[in-house]
Amino acid sequence: MSSSSTLVESSAVLNDQAESSSHSFDNTTSASPWGKSAKATSQSNQAVSFKDVMSEQLASQLQVEENIKFVQEDYQPDTIETEPPDLTEGDIASGSSEDTSNDALLAQMLQAEMDKEYNKYIAKQERQVNKNSKVKLSFTNYRTDEMFVSEEDDDEDLYSSSDEDIGSGQGADPSQNILEIKNDKGYVIFGKEVVTKHDSELCGRRNTARLEDGFPLQFRTGDATGMDIQLNNKIYNSLKKHAFSEQRRSHRLHEDKEHYTAEHAVDERTRLILHRLVDRGIIASVNGVISIGKEAVVIHADGGDIAASDLPPVKNPSVRKVSCLQIPKECAIKIYKTTLNEFRSRDKYIKDDYRFKDRFKKLNPRKIIHMWAEKEMHNLLRMHECGIDCPEVILLRKHVLVMSFIGHNQQPAPKLKQAILSSSQKKLAYEQVVNMMKKLYHECRLVHSDLSEFNLLWHDGKVWMIDVSQSVEPSHPHGLEFLLRDCTNISKFFNNLGVPAVLSSMELFNEVSGLNIATENEATFLSTIETLEKSSEEHSHQGRNKSSQILEQSAH
Ligand code: ADP
Ligand code: MN
């Protein structure tokens, strides 16, 4: 399904480009190796974009005029006479090279034309062979001038748009086609072989300048355009091909990702769970999506009117737990994605957590996702018990966590990042966050580990903490490092908000943890933290209490 939509999209892109560069295509078809009709001449005048004319207008114009004169006088007066005056410096310019005899040039021109025809033929064969095949054969080795022909193919493929090989470099932008077509006059190759220094310089600079507008937006071309760098044609063209094929690749990846989100986050199993929740009256209706994150999708739901005490008994309380007596009117359902890719990088949060350590080794990936949801539930329950403002857990079913909704009328509370606060509210928010962190650390024995203005909501005049699936105990082998990172985020955010007397990240760390590490030097601060973590870990074989004790002792 995803691949077919990719094809549709890419052929649409091809069509687009076909339209916008239709002039240049006319040019290619009407180009005769041996000269041009008056009609073709006028068309090729049209094909020059304004930008092309404007850039280096004078230099190229002079050079071109000289070249034409040179060719007309010395070489092929009959055929060249009809040549349009819009040749660019790269075309026949090199004809002015003095050490090349007339006959040799003429022969090279003829050879070039024959090569071009031959290469065109090879390209056609290649396309025919590869037409509907997933495995593509390349005839590149049979070509006499690989680069030249492949670019010409690009032009043709733009118009045949039926070609499905979207990854092979077609689809360069129209202005680039114009350049290629101007080359398509039988002079290019000989031009390439006998290029004067001046021509290559001009052409190189122009290529560099084109980095600015000829490439996809996302493609980083660096600062080359600000310097006097000359890119030769071959490098420019292959860079360009690479840029566009990268762009298409990233589009495809992106599309796959979205496809996954829509189709797989709420897959059959998830849908069944949601249906059951509605059937049992726990949820009245499932509404819109609140957030699509990397690991989870959050959906708004209306709470059902069943009393929590009426819920059916639970066989395994750790898998399904209700912390409130009445199901709230508005609920948030967090559905952990059953695709694993994003979770791999987060393994460290769970596999070193003593609470899950032993189970982690035995579980299959799907169960590990369930564990993430379970971990968030446990952490939320702990926080709730300690009186930290956070969503209330309603129930957990496999990878689906139902909790109370922070917000009003389906409108989720703003993240601190987005909330518009008065300066007194900002100060209040800061104080609340610091207190929350302390409570979390000392009473819940947790370090949030992903604390920032994105995981703090502003609701009913106070701060609410969310997203605690990755939260760990302070005795986790990296717990203190996670805490320092949280502190850094918080200090930075409130500092930028302009809140007065914001503690530095190290001061906040000491304030939250009760440790008293010297704050003069960040590097020594961090190494002290790491040493503490190590000694706490060394004692962890004596049980978690011992390792917590180490931290507590250090705090006094
Ligand atoms: P993620 O791992 O995707 O960041 P979060 O738990 O942070 O998952 O949820 C993503 C977003 O969904 C939050 O930033 C918040 O806007 C919204 N959200 C999550 N839980 C709730 C909730 N209980 N009430 C209201 N909005 C919520
Ligand atoms: Mn989040």
Automatic annotation (TrEMBL):
EC number: 2.7.11.1
The UniProt record lists the keyword Transferase: yes
Keywords: ATP-binding, Kinase, Magnesium, Metal-binding, Nucleotide-binding, Serine/threonine-protein kinase, Transferase
Cited Pfam families: RIO1
InterPro entries: Kinase-like_dom_sf, RIO-type_Ser/Thr_kinase, RIO_dom, RIO_kinase, Ser/Thr_kinase_Rio3
Region (Disordered): 1-48, 72-101, 149-176, 534-556
Comp. bias regions, Low complexity: 1-11
Residues covered by the RIO kinase domain: 255-514
Cofactor(s) needed: Mg(2+)
Compositional bias annotation for Acidic residues: 80-89, 149-166
Start-end of Polar residues biased regions: 12-32, 39-48, 545-556
EC main group: transferase
Reactions listed under catalytic activity: L-threonyl-[protein] + ATP = O-phospho-L-threonyl-[protein] + ADP + H(+); L-seryl-[protein] + ATP = O-phospho-L-seryl-[protein] + ADP + H(+)
Assigned protein family: Belongs to the protein kinase superfamily. RIO-type Ser/Thr kinase family.
UniProt name for this protein: Serine/threonine-protein kinase RIO3
Species per Swiss-Prot/TrEMBL record: Clavelina lepadiformis
